[in-house]
């Protein structure tokens, strides 16, 4: 059999789409699959640097891509993002995986982009270990965010290019004879932790590379994208310092700066001076109600909805808004932004076609209405399929179509001035299309739907659905070694699913140990990551009572109150450390203030069938759905049909803070429920089992 690796050709697109559609574990899943045309558009819109395909006897069996942007993120200067790395199952135990990675890295060494970034689900132990084995390191957050991934970096291309001129003939010959970067990197452990060491105030990573009988040691400044120092140890043990060739360009790091603020009354807006991201805030709503990225001077360099590259922006305050200018050589894009009377106006002029604009509606609960009154509850995968992994496969919305998102306190509305895409129910991809006067205009309208209150309606609404509890005694076990509740039964009804006494994978959590536990997470409205997956921190818990645990490392405490009478709900009291007292995650370049919008979350893995009925209250409206129909929903109250019969009700206790919310995620391992409140806010949660759902 003949196996070849070659660059992508346009005629490959249908075969790549078919390959991905055949395998549910492909790296860029989209419900219902994608077409070859969508795959081709995606590669064009990502400003693809290199896309490799592996072909055996005429059949496409593997892919590996290097991109300047993925829609979700945009690479900094000198970096590329690896994605769409996929090998058909029949070839995963051979050499193909290593060959694809090696050829991509070799191409990078000859280019000006020398730092490789990629994301991986840490619960996918095979992929995570592979990336660690070829020298990928963690320099940022070490737990997955809402998207389920952690980011890794590979600096081997940068190191090799920086030292190559001074390696010497023997070491160069040894390097040329290597067939896999797994033998170069020496491998790292597969622990989910940072590889950062701070030296003289700089965040650095140390590498030791094996070049035959030679050992190359290098220290990399990860924020500048440059090698600080390197030494070469010869076969006889002699050590010499290597002269370094500077990189073609240094990476830029955003310099912290106060945002520019404007607006009036219950609405306000702020523009991030580093990358041009616009946020709109509304009284009574937790987190921004609307986020819009900056379009950039040139297509392919636009900011992603999770992250963008630092930019040189000229920002001038104007009446009720701002004037923002970005220059790229002879090219320029100018934005006039105002917020008046609940209307956000964004008007752009440009010398050439700018990049895409991603806009995120920050309502988590409520509905989306479009297409002549068609209304769907808000949730990832509800009404509009989730195309965040392949933006080009998003739902096409024709020009002139009106879209409305309604929540408990605010509605957000717009009319598509030009065709746009719904990437999912609350994420839009828009283009700056000029009108007859040469100006591209985007208009978004915000309306106050109801007066806000200090406490939400969850307690009374959920109580209305109360029904008879199952007969039989209540048993509940909490174990400090597992960090949570390992068993809960109401009579014969199993309420929680737990792996105790083992540790297993659940969704994107590689360390699932209990059926109920508590973690501190990045905030649900955090742009860079969103709410995580309940990965337990390395620090342990202390037992503070029969059913109470305390974590000295971050000051989080929680206690389970389980009355003997099963008619009474189980009450879980969660107490998180106040905001600002704990620093950011290790390696997080945002530093000690990184937790200013964090959440403390009570997690549950309910004992449900793989596919079950779900009833949830979203912004005052009751909805019933099958769990197979969505990926994630936020709610004021939830009911889940359990395996042994009965319904698990979850809700904040009466009097809970307004920002207390529930999130429900569906995974191949089962359902995951998160009960979230802002860190520093005390919250009690009511959990109970009944013979009927919420009404």
From TrEMBL:
Keywords recorded for this protein, A-Z: Acyltransferase, Transferase
A Gene Ontology molecular function term of the record: acyltransferase activity
InterPro entries cross-referenced by the UniProt entry: Acyl_CoA_acyltransferase (IPR016181), Bact_Acetyltransf (IPR050832), GNAT_dom (IPR000182)
Matches recorded under CDD domains: NAT_SF
EC primary class: transferase
Pfam families reported for this sequence: Acetyltransf_1
Its EC number(s): 2.3.-.-
Span of domain N-acetyltransferase: 3-162
UniProt protein name: GNAT family N-acetyltransferase
Organism: Streptomyces cremeus
């Amino acid at each position: 059999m003949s196996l070849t690796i070659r660059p992508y050709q346009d005629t490959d697109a249908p075969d790549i789409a078919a390959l991905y559609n055949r395998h549910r574990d492909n790296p860029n899943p989209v419900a219902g699959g994608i077409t070859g045309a969508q795959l081709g558009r995606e590669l064009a819109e990502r400003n693809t640097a290199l896309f490799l395909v592996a072909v055996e006897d005429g059949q496409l069996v593997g892919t590996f891509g290097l991109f300047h942007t993925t829609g979700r993120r945009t690479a900094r200067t000198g970096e590329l993002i690896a994605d769409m790395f996929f090998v058909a199952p029949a070839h995963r135990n051979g050499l193909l995986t290593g060959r694809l990675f090696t050829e991509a890295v070799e191409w990078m060494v000859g280019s000006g982009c020398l730092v490789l970034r990629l994301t991986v689900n840490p619960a996918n132990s095979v992929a995570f270990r592979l990336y660690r084995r070829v020298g990928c390191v963690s320099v940022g957050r070490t737990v997955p965010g809402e998207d389920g991934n952690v980011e890794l970096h590979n600096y081997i291309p940068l190191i090799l290019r920086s030292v190559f001129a001074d390696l010497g003939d023997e070491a160069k010959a040894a390097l040329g004879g290597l067939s896999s970067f797994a033998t170069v990197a020496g491998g790292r452990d597969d622990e989910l932790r940072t590889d950062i060491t701070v030296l003289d105030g700089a965040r650095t990573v140390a590498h030791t590379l094996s070049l035959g009988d030679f050992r190359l040691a290098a220290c990399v400044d990860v924020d500048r994208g440059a090698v600080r120092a390197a030494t070469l140890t010869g076969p006889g043990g002699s050590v010499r310092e290597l002269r370094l060739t500077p990189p073609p360009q240094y990476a830029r790091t955003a310099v912290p700066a106060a945002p520019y603020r404007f607006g009036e009354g219950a609405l306000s807006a702020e523009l991030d001076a580093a990358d041009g991201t616009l946020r709109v805030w509304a009284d009574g709503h937790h987190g921004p109600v609307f986020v819009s990225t900056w379009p950039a001077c040139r297509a392919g360099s636009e900011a992603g909805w999770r992250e963008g590259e630092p930019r040189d922006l000229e920002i001038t305050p104007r009446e009720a808004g701002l004037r923002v200018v970005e220059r790229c050589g002879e090219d320029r894009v100018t934005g006039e932004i105002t917020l008046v009377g609940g209307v956000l106006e964004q008007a752009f002029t440009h010398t050439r076609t700018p990049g895409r604009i991603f806009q995120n509606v920050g309502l988590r609960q409520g509905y989306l209405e479009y297409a002549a009154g068609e209304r769907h509850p808000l949730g990832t995968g509800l009404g509009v399929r989730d195309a965040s992994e392949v933006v080009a496969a998003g739902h096409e919305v024709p020009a002139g179509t009106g879209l409305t998102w309604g929540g408990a306190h605010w509605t957000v509305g717009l009319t598509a001035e030009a065709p746009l895409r719904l990437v999912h129910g609350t994420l839009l991809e828009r283009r700056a299309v000029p009108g007859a006067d040469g100006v591209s205009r985007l208009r978004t309208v915000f309306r106050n739907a109801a007066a806000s209150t200090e406490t939400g309606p969850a307690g009374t609404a959920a109580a209305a659905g109360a029904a008879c509890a199952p007969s039989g005694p209540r048993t509940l076990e909490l174990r400090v070694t597992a960090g949570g509740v390992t068993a809960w039964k109401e009579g014969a009804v199993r309420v929680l699913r737990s792996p105790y006494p083992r540790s297993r994978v659940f969704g994107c959590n590689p360390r699932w140990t209990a059926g109920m536990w508590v973690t501190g997470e990045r905030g649900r409205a955090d742009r860079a990551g969103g709410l995580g997956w309940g990965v337990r921190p390395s620090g342990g818990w202390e037992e503070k009572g029969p059913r109470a645990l305390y974590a000295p490392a971050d000051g989080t405490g929680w206690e389970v109150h389980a009355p003997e009478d099963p008619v009474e709900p189980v009450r879980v009291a969660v107490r998180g450390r106040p905001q600002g007292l704990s620093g950011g995650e290790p390696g997080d370049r945002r530093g000690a203030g990184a937790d200013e919008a964090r959440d403390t979350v009570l997690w549950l893995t309910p004992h449900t069938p793989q596919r079950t009925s779900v009833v949830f209250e979203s912004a005052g409206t009751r909805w019933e759905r099958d769990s197979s129909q969505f990926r994630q929903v936020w709610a004021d109250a939830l009911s889940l049909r359990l395996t042994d019969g009965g319904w698990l009700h979850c809700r904040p206790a009466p009097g809970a803070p307004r920002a207390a919310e529930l999130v429900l995620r569906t995974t191949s391992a089962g359902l995951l429920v998160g009960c979230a409140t802002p860190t520093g806010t005390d919250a009690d949660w009511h959990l109970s089992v009944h013979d009927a759902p919420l009404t």
